[in-house]
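Handout, page 2. Input:
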Amino acid sequence: MTVAAERTELSVRPVAGHIGAEIDGVDLSQPLDEATVARLTDALHRYKVIFFRDQVLDHAGQVRFGRHFGELTYAHPHDDTPPEGYPEIFTVDPRRYEQRYGKDNPVKTRRQYSYFAGWHTDVTAAVNPPAGSILRAETVPEFGGDTTWTNLVAAYQGLSAPVRAFVDTLRAEHRYGGGHEQPAGSDRYRRRVEDNLLVAVHPVVRVHPVTGERALFVNPGFTNHILDLTPRENRALLDLLYAELTRPEYTVRFRWRPGSVAFWDNRATAHLAPTDLEHLDVARTLHRVTLIGDRPVGPDGRESELIAGREFTAEHTVVVD
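Output:
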C-alpha cells in the first residue's frame, strides 16, 4: 500500500466524553500533506488532545512532525541540556536532572517525572505560552506512569452563569515556580530559575484564537494570584476553579507505550504528570516539542502582559548557570 493510500485511511476515534481522541492511519515519520495536517488540526481543536500509537519517530522526525503545525520553541526556559543537535527537544527523564544538578535536584528529590508534579498548562509563566505540545514516549515502565489531561473549555462551561460572568473580568499573575510549589532542591537549580525569571499577567478566562471558545486559564503549576483580590479571596476562588478544572468527567487518562505520541492544545487543556512511580525504580523517558503560541486574549479583548523574562521565539534563549 502506498503512503498516499495510507493517508486517506486516517481515522479519528473519541476516547472520552469531553476530551481526547485516538488517531489511526497516519505515519508521523513521513511528510504530511495539507489535507492530513488540516484533519489533525481540526481533531486537535475539537478533542483538545489527540493520541497516536506505534509510531517510529526519532528526534528529527518529531521536530519535522511538529513543524507541520507551526514554529517550535527551544526546549525549556530553564533547561540547557537538550539532545545534541536538537535544541527544540525537551527530554522528560529524572535521571537527566540528577546528572545535571545532583541528587538533591527538585525533580529527583521526589522521583518526579515532570518539571512540575501537579496539574499545569505548559509554561503559562511566559507571556505567549506554547500553543501546543507534542510528547513522544521512548522508554516507559510496564505499569504506571500514565498522564491525564483535562478540558479547560468544559471546566469553564461547567461554572454557573454568574461565576462565569465574574471570572470573565479577572486577570492573574503567572510565574515560574510561583504556584503552590516553589522550586526545591539544589541551589544551582534555584539560581537558574531566579536568573531566568518568567512572569506574565493573563486573563483568567482565555478566548481560543481559532475556535472562539472560552477556557479557564489558571493552573496550580504557574498561577501565583488573581489581581485585585485579597489573599483570602484568592485562596477561595482559585480553590474553586482548580476543583472545577480537575473534575474527573472533564479528563482523559493515557496509558503510554513505546512509540506513543500525545499532541495537546495547550490553550485549552491542563495535564497531570504521573505520581505513582516515586517508590519504584523504573525508567521513563519521553521527549517533547512545543509550538510557539500567541499572547492570550480575554473576553474583554485585552492581551496578556509581559512582566519579566522574554517572549518565546524560535531563537535560543540564553540560560544563566
